[in-house]
Amino acid sequence: MAINIVEAIQKRLGTTSINKIDVNTSHQSETKHPAKTDEGMQAAASAVLVALYRFGKTDEGAASIASDGNRNWLQTIFMNKEEVAIDRVSKYSNNSADDCRNVMTEIADEAVQEVHRNVGKDATPEKVKAYISSQRHNILSYLPAELEMGKLLDDPVLDDRTNKMEGPVSSFLHWIENLMAPGDRTNEEAFKREDEMFTRKTR
Question: Which of 91, 114, 176, 187 is the most buried (most CB within 10 A)?
Answer without folding.
Answer: 114
